[in-house]
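Reopening: structure tokens for the glyoxylic acid complex, inputs below.
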Amino acid sequence: MTTPSDFAALGARAAAMIEELGALSQTPEHLTRFFLTPEHRRAADLVARWMREAGLEVSEDALGTVRGHWGPVDAPRLLIGSHIDTVANAGKYDGCMGVVAGILALDAINRAGLTRPYGIDILAFGDEEGTRFPTTLSSSAAVAGYFSPANLELRDADGISLREAMVAYGKNPDDIPAAAYDPNRVIAYIEAHIEQGPVLEAEGEPLGVVSAIAGASRLSVTVTGEAGHAGTVPMRMRHDALLGAAEMALAVERIAKADAHGMVATVGRVHVEPGSINVIPSRVVFTVDLRSGSDISRREALTRFEREAHRIADLRGLGVVISAFHEVATVPCYRDLQLRLRNAVADLGHRAVTMPSGAGHDGQAMSRLCPIGMLFVRCKGGISHNPAEYASPEDMGLAVAALVRFIERFQLPQLAA
Ligand code: GLV
Ligand code: MN
Ligand code: MN
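Re-run output (same inputs, fresh job):
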């Protein structure tokens, strides 16, 4: 089925589906769709409808992951997935592209009448971005069998716990263990995702194969000072929590820039109390997101930051508490799957660029269950986590065709070591 006119038709369908999903948002002017919200519900229902239309048998687990099953029920499973939650003011392609590509690939496989000695499940996860609760990858962690029950007590910005949000979504936290796959019954996890960076565009190639997903640490840093009158307290007598936090954020930047392994660090959220124009800030909570392909240099950077933060706090007469709430090591993609994906892309007349992923993905959690492989799709200007995010229908059509070729070539549920 993989002729160029088929690619174009698949790409056009992918683009239309992504537009439809992109309209399901908390606010009409931006795309914002957080985990276990009413808009997540609407997106999950739409995905379930598309799965049924593609001939898949649909179910949903305790953390809202939508699953569409194809093929034999009792045979081992090949898993293909991505996520349908978004950051605030997001682009439409991050995550959704991979879910849509998986559904369209199985639709094409069904139409071609292909049978396989293994089953395939398409998974639409709901918590890849970690934008609602101070945890991330919780839905894929449940599927991989290592969800931590302590996370049920974590609270969102409105004070709602993950447990409460699940119940409001119609789920029972006691059902979480049943979301886990048996590792002996899973062959591999494959994810198609937009690249979210500029490499494929620079290489002039539509598709890439991921070699590894960079490790990441996320910190919550609380700086405490002393509130005071903005008009009366002399500068030398202040204990301004925000100025200390600002200096710590610059220290994060310095540490990342000095790293030889392309480390990246971001202070993406800052909460200031009391948050009043005429009061010296007394308490600041900010986040640090630190990533590197080298786990050793990431850990060294964390130690250096901790030292710097305490030095800055001491000089300014502030308190500082640092807590790590997310820590994942660099995850290599399975070599056999990289090769199979490259071959599938080569069948379409393209050279897959092999590259690491700086962005986080559900594959990080899924790697604890089974071998993982990832296919990247070129995106315009390398822009992501931004409403300007864009992947062309042509490139997305090729990604669907590459998944189809991957399945067509994957006869036996066995991987080379
Ligand atoms: C998810 O998109 C992440 O890498 O933060
Ligand atoms: Mn993503
Ligand atoms: Mn993202």
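The chain is about 35% helix and 20% strand. Residues 83, 94-95, 128, 193, 361 surround manganese (II) ion (ligand 2) (CB under 6 Å). Marking as resolved unless the reporter disagrees.
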